[in-house]
Amino acid sequence: MRAISWGIFPFLGFAALRGFNEAISNPRSVTAIALVGVVMNIGANYVLMFGKLGFPELGLVGTGWASSIVFWAIFLGLVTYSAAKKSFSQYGIFSKLGRPDPHYFKELFRIGWPIGASMGVEMSLFMIAVMMMGWIGTAQLAAHQVAIQCAAFTFMVPLGIGIASSVRVGQAVGANDRDGVIRSGFVGIGLSVAFMAATAILFWAAPRSVISLYLDLGSVENERVIDIAVRLLGIAAVFQVFDGIQVSAMGALRGLKDTKTPMMLAMVSYWPVGLSAAYGLAFVLGWGEVGLWWGLVSGLGCAAILLTIRFIRLTAPGKI
pLDDT under 50 in the chain at which residues? Predict the structure, then answer.
């Protein structure tokens, strides 16, 4: 923790510049720098953990120092790129360093804190689900981790689409282009549904092949975990589609600078609906791990419906 703490500032700086590049439709440079960072991280971990190239063997602490070094490297790389790119000069992104603007701080905080709260509410649903799954049993918890990791991996695509929707919707709002706002929002939702439907088919049709990425299917010790994971992946197929809709709709709403109401909708969906349903189905009705997962589906489904309705209402004639 002490070692990685030296990387907090550059990580936050990288995140800010990443947001700027994404907002002006320039994400590829960030991706390239991040990929370089991944390669650096592998090398730095190997050298510092195991004491290679004359460095001391730091063990686990070496991972903290490696992360800090990489955070500084990707931050400085993105700073250099952003400062050197001629087309960025019109934005003057480094021209007011040391002269903070209270108006923009207030605006960023007004828009940003509900986004952070929404993400925290959603994360809490899955964190508490892990805890409740542990109450059911160790095999169920292991199967849950396999299934949720599969869902989290595929979720990265609609998450990226949701960020792109936020950018495109925001640009259309700035151009006073209502048709562009609607098109950007619904294209994002449609793309997310299409991708998640494809992964849902994979989860339905070949669950054991997916699970084989995590567990040895030939091991007798893994049989119970594999059987439970197969059932959970079947539910994850439904889970996937709703998750894609809600993250894309949320992204489109952020492009409209609408963050407080979506935060409240997320709270209602994930806590009173999702958590209550998960607990009730798993423990009151005795459905166990299957009931817990259907509870997660109910929370995501509620969020998907409410957030999509919110976007429809905000883009109605006369609203933009």
Answer: none
